[in-house]
Amino acid sequence: MNLQVIEKAGKPEWAVIPYETYQRLVADAEMLQDVQDYDAAKQSVAAGEELVPSEVTYAILDGRNPIKVWRQYRGFTQQELAKQANISAAYLSQIESGKRKGTTAALSAIAAALDLTLDDVLEME
Fold first, then answer.
1. Which terminus of the chain faces fewer neighbouring Cβ atoms within 10 Å, N or C?
2. Domain that holds residue 66
C-alpha cells in the first residue's frame, strides 16, 4: 500500500493514503457495522425482543389509533381487550375512535393487556 505518514513533534499525526484505498476502507467499515448490527438484532430476538411487522408500524405512522392497531394484531376483540384491561368495551371503543383520550390508568391497563409499554399505545401528535 502506498502510505505517507506526516509527523508532528516526532510523532505520527496524519496518514495519507490513495483515495481508492480510502474508499475501500470506508466500504469495509460499513460492512462491518452492518454485520455487527445484524448480530445485535439476532441476540435481541433470541433474548425475547419482539419483531414488529411493517404493517403495524406503517398503520400507526399513517395515523391509525395504536391501540386498535395493536389490538387487531394481537387478535383481540374490543370486548376481550376491555375485559383484560378491566374497562368497559364502550370506553375502549371511545378511546380507539378518538372520542376520549383515556386516563393514564386505563391506558396503562390496556398497554399491559397488550404486552406493550404505555408509550406504545399513546397516539403520536
1. C
2. 54-121
